[in-house]
């Protein structure tokens, strides 16, 4: 399986989700044997790479946003996500961050090493918390300011140095919507390759405060309860979509 990315887009057949074969790759100037293997010591035929952002798709193929493809990829979605993260890691670690020497592949693990100063660079994973706040049967959902057409979803944010996941939940909730929460309960986690997050999701009970949005992060935040119109929420393939659907107020149905 050959995963070729152009930015956050994956090359697939125009009429489906078939990945390019070696001939198509070579037509783009990509030698399959030079692509990065997705695993160390496992299935060397699963490879990945990034190409230039101005590259054109070959006849019969198209570059499509990976985020939009996840629902179509089904069980192959996590593999495509890993391929993207590995390709992005290689793209952004061509040179040593200490001495600028070209990096080399380690021979015993998935790692890039500097032959000059010995720096080791592993694929980056950035932990992020997600929390769905409940007040009785109502849910707090927010629309993020960065995305004009964003759906309403649970709050989320990256964990900062020195924080626990729980610390990050309390800090992000207070920063983004001015609320206090209690009774955090772990829901689940998901690798989210945009670009290299690990989403760790919780539910929490409302403990006090009035909604006060952080305008540079949150466009709107509201309580949604039984009998009220419910907004569009994230797709089922995302942990945000599963988190909200698992905690819908009584009588509420969404697609």
From TrEMBL:
It catalyses: a 5'-end NAD(+)-phospho-ribonucleoside in mRNA + H2O = a 5'-end phospho-adenosine-phospho-ribonucleoside in mRNA + beta-nicotinamide D-ribonucleotide + 2 H(+). SUPFAM superfamilies: Nudix (SSF55811). Residues 123-246 form the Nudix hydrolase domain. Pfam families: NUDIX, Zn_ribbon_NUD. One of its GO terms (cellular component) is cytosol. GO terms for molecular function: metal ion binding; NADH pyrophosphatase activity. Gene3D superfamilies: 3.90.79.20, Nucleoside Triphosphate Pyrophosphohydrolase. It comes from the Bacteria. This is NAD(+) diphosphatase. The lineage of its organism: Bacteria, Pseudomonadati, Pseudomonadota, Betaproteobacteria, Burkholderiales.
């Amino acid at each position: 399986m050959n995963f070729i990315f152009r930015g956050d887009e994956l090359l697939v057949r125009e009429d489906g989700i078939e990945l390019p074969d070696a001939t198509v790759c070579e037509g783009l100037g990509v030698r399959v044997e030079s692509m990065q293997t997705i695993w160390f010591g496992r299935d060397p035929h699963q490879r990945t790479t990034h190409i230039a952002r101005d590259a054109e798709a070959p006849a019969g193929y198209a570059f499509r946003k990976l985020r939009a493809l996840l629902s179509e990829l089904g069980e192959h979605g996590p593999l495509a996500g890993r391929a993207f993260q590995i390709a992005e890691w290689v793209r952004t670690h061509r040179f040593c961050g200490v001495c600028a020497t070209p990096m080399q592949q380690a021979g015993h693990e998935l790692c890039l090493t500097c032959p000059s100063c010995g720096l080791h660079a592993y694929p980056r994973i950035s932990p992020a918390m997600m929390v769905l706040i409940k007040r009785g049967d109502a849910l707090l959902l927010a629309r993020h300011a960065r995305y004009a057409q964003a759906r309403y979803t649970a709050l989320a944010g990256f964990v900062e140095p020195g924080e626990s996941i729980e610390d990050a939940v309390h800090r992000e909730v207070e920063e983004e919507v001015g609320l206090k929460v209690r009774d955090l309960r772990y829901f689940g986690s998901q690798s989210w390759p945009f670009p290299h997050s690990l989403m760790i999701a919780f539910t929490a009970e409302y403990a006090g405060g009035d909604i006060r949005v952080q305008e540079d992060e949150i466009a709107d935040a509201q309580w949604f309860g039984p009998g009220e119109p419910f907004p569009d929420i994230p797709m089922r393939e995302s942990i945000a979509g599963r988190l909200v659907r698992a905690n819908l107020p009584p009588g509420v149905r969404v697609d």
